[in-house]
Every structure is written in structure tokens, then in C-alpha cells.
Write a structure and sequence with these properties.
2 domains; 29% helix; 102 residues; mainly alpha; elongated
């Protein structure tokens, strides 16, 4: 089958309460109080785009036959390696077939 047949997602578990930010820098920009709602997620010290890509791909492949995967596409603005094939690292971590394109 051609096309996207499954997708996965990963969000880091760490959260930062925006009100904590206002408490620290509110003196500098009091207007920031209006946007101090919610809590964004952020990466831990050992999480990078490859780690999150592997976690999202595992979510994508849960309950599916890995041998049917034809290709793996990886796109990010901040990949950790410039001299290595990052998609190949994810492919190896997922234990995909050697014939699958990356």
C-alpha cells in the first residue's frame, strides 16, 4: 500500500508551569502575566530529536508487522549528527528490515 498507513507521537514528560516563569521575570515584563497559562513540555538532558523520533516510531509501529515497513523518513531542524545518517540510526534502533529505505 502506498501512503501513510500509521503515525506515532511522543511528547517529553517534563513540564514547566508558565506562572513560574512570570514569578522570575515578571519584574522585567509585567505584561507577560497575560500569557502565563498552561505548561509547555520540554526535553530532559538526555532527550534529543533522535531519541524522540525512536519513541514516536515505536508508538507508530505498536501492534504492526515491522517487516511490512518499506521506508522510514526522518525530518527535523536539530538532528544531533552531521556526519552520520540520522535516519539510519533510527532504522537500526527500530530493528527494521535491511531492505527498508531510510
Amino acid at each position: 500500500m502506498i501512503g501513510i498507513t500509521s503515525f506515532g507521537a511522543y511528547l517529553p514528560k517534563l513540564r514547566l508551569n508558565r506562572m513560574s516563569i512570570v514569578e522570575q521575570v515578571g519584574w522585567f515584563a509585567p505584561a507577560i502575566m497575560m500569557v502565563a497559562q498552561g505548561e509547555p513540555s520540554f526535553c530532559n538532558w538526555d532527550e534529543d530529536s533522535l531519541t524522540m523520533a525512536v519513541a514516536a516510531a515505536r508508538d507508530c509501529l505498536a501492534g504492526r508487522d515491522k517487516s511490512l515497513v518499506d521506508a522510514l523518513y526522518l525530518c527535523a531542524t536539530t538532528l544531533p549528527f552531521q556526519d552520520r545518517f540520522n535516519a539510519g540510526v533510527v532504522k537500526t534502533a527500530l530493528n527494521l528490515d535491511d531492505n527498508a529505505e531510510a
